[in-house]
Amino acid sequence: MLQIKGLNKQFGNVKALNNAYLNLRAGEIRGLLGSNGSGKSTMAKVLGGLMFKNAGDISINGETVEIGSPLDSRERGIAVAYQDLSLVPQFTIEDNLTLGREPRTSGWKRIERKQTREEATKWIEKLQINAAPHTLVESLDPSTASLVEVAKALSWNPKILLLDEVTACLHHDQVNRLFEVLRELKEQGLAIIIITHRFDEIFKICDSATILRNGETVTEIDIKDVVETDLVYYMTGKRPEPFSRKSTEEHAKKTEREVVLSVSDLYLRDKVKGVSIDVHQGEILGICGLQGQGQSDFLRAVYGSVAFDKGTITYQGKSVAFRSPKDAIRQGIGFISGDRHAEGIFPDRTIKENIFISKTSLRNLFSSVNTKKQAATTEEVVQRLNVKIGSIDHSASSLSGGNQQKLLFGRNFLFDLKLVLLDDPTKGVDISSRREIHQILRDLTKTGTSVLISSSDHEELLEISDRIVVFYEGRVNAEMTVDEHTEDLLISAMLGVRVNDHQEAGA
Amino acid sequence: MSQVRKFLSSAGTSGYLLLLGAIVINVVVQGSSFFSTANFTSILSVNTPLIIAAIAQTIVVLNRGIDLSVGSNITLVNTIVIMLSNKYGWSIEAACAAGLIAGTFIGAINGFIIAYFRIPSLLATFATMSVFGGLALIVLPTPGGSVPSYMYLLYGGQTLGIPNSVFIVIVVALIWLLLSKYPIGKHIRAVGGAEKSAYTAGISIAKVRFIAFTLAGTISGVAGLCITALTASGDPKIGLSITLNCIAAVILGGTRLAGGWGGIGGSVAGAVFLGLVNNIVFFFFNNFLTHFSGIASRASFIQQLLTNTIIILGLASAVFTQRRKKRAKIAT
């Protein structure tokens, strides 16, 4: 029914999709799998008309189609429920369901309110959505809103339905109900593509799976022919092996050191649900997980830029709850975000200013800045971190992503740091700068600084961390000491597979 | 109880409550003379241009835009009507029709720049504000001219005890309420509320935005005709104060500047509130403070000071109620 061949999509130099293919029959439920950044969502957006392919063929029922807009996509019978929702929050559920295809009265062609209400009611009942049709979407909780997004896609009566990680914030019973409806629709000949990270769901609902790795289709398989470890193999290219306890001495030794930061049972709205971790002196603790499993929120709660609801944070033996980043900085905690445009760099200010801002932030607002000293300090930092710059008076935006990131490191080095929190610091950073950043982190730990680093790239964490905790749905799903066999276990833990049996006792 | 709750959570609440407060204070200060038909008619007819401009502004704000050229639009329509009827001898009806077309055209130009060149409305209309304001000065360099007496008599008169200007407001409001029953009305809000979602639903963002600004232009044109009938003359600076006042009215009326949420009811209430505040301050000065000679000579400045202080308090309360609503929503 749907045939995709040689699909390519590039963003600058990054290939999001590279020769991806997919073949789908009517009445089939297909799982579209792959780790972070493998191109699943990109494929969904290309099919939905939100992005345009660079090359490749898409054909429906044997007929080649060009999808240039969401309207095109819809006219071909494709409906997509997006992960980040395509609802208008200020509208009611019923107005959202019919947006763009409002039923009209026969004479005056006005919007037919009654029919709108009836249609909405039908889908609300079918999916057992716990809200009235006239409820505003902005007042719904995330799981209900996700179901409304699905209902919206279904209400278009598509021939091909794409669900992009819609189950991520659904509750268990909601997922079950949704799957019942999907099976029913499948009987009626609907072709369904489901993007999900939850393995149990794949085995429950999917007939087959298409697996992407780095934008390429690795294989298309029947689900009944495979087991979990096969899927992990296709996604990573490596077979999971039983966990071995051979942790290097150095890693182990570090856990015997003094605990710098101890978090216990931390709760933050529905993002973080009871996380407890210890960070030892001079240790690099990696936080691993799929996107949006609470890592960022956790780090920000520790740093004091968002207030947590429950739990205790003990830092250097004292119970603390920083009310603002300023408090955290004064106590020797640094924070570096990978989202440097939003949370780091002042792109139009000079490199000098960008580095020195941290120093000035702790002083009186009207204290004078010694420009000579500022320049000298900056030069020193730039050399130490090997930032490639023209001059310290150039604007920060003149630097590459990696060098901008190094500026942020430099900014934090002006403090006497005891603990550095990093949220995906190497996002969009080229490989050589990445190496240098890793070296900077290792050097830091030699002076006794502890590092708590979250990253969407698990290989990176394996490379630099002493220990890794894996976040899944706001909880710590696994905690492990790094050794050469951890990767596959890590992936499984990221995907929510329970690895308790392998988990280090008492860690 | 649920009716009360529904009222309190509707978009225009702050506008209605402020209006109610202003009426109560007016009655207290002015006594029964507030209710005289003459007073009513005068307050409403004087403020009709602002009320209608506030309706135009609401449509644009619902679309997550802002129109700073409303005042210039009104001014240009006013000067065109006066020039055509006085200098070129057009009948006043024909001149008014031409003025309305000019207003629509101004809106269409705004809409075209904003929708198809994707220039933020704040910047685009800031520029066109000066362009159309300048054009008005070319059309009619100095204040002057007149309209036939039946025009302003009709505008300032009453039918069945209701001021005629109210009917104009009702007609304009009905046009928007009717459009709200059609997809276009819904799509204007959808684009304002969540542009990406609207696009995903297959709505043409540019087309909807263009229509919203053009419609606002037409309605501003109506406001321009009203002000012409009210002042019975032309003035190339007449609309200047309306631009910011109508934005204030929209905010007072509880429409979110972030788009997608609100309605014209609140804005109309907000505009009338502004009018009543002016009225009460004016009345207060005329009847109580004129006895102090030191104040009387600076009365108009002090009046403005007082008026605007009240407006700030009103705006603060409108923003405050919005914020509280939002918090209540998160808590549930």
Task: Please describe what this structure looks like.
With 507 residues, chain A is an alpha/beta fold. Chain A is globular and about 75 Å long. In chain A, β4 and β5 form a beta hairpin. In chain A, α13 packs parallel to α15. Chain A has helices at 40-48, 70-75, 93-97, 113-126, 142-155, 172-187, 199-205, 228-236, 249-254, 295-303, 325-330, 340-343, 351-361, 371-385, 401-413, 431-446, 458-464, 486-494, and strands at residues 2-11, 14-24, 29-33, 55-60, 63-64, 78-81, 160-164, 191-195, 208-213, 216-222, 259-268, 272-280, 284-288, 310-315, 318-320, 333-337, 419-423, 450-454, 467-472, 475-481. Chain A has 18 helices and 20 strands. In chain A, the strands form 4 sheets. Chain A has a 6-stranded mixed β-sheet, sandwiched between helices. A 6-stranded mixed β-sheet of chain A has the order 16-17-18-13-19-20, with helices on both faces. Chain A has a 4-stranded antiparallel β-sheet with strand order 2-1-4-5, with no helix packed on it. Chain B is mainly alpha-helical and 332 residues long. Chain B has a single domain (10-331), classed as Orthogonal Bundle (ABC transporter involved in vitamin B12 uptake, BtuC). Chain B is 77% helix and 1% strand. Chain B contains 15 helices and 2 strands. Chain B has a two-stranded antiparallel ribbon with strand order 1-2. In chain B, a hairpin with a 2-residue loop joins β1 and β2 (162-163). Chain B is globular and about 65 Å long. The two termini of chain B are 19 Å apart. Mean pLDDT of chain B is 87; it is low at 328-332. The interface between A and B is medium-sized, with 25 and 23 residues.
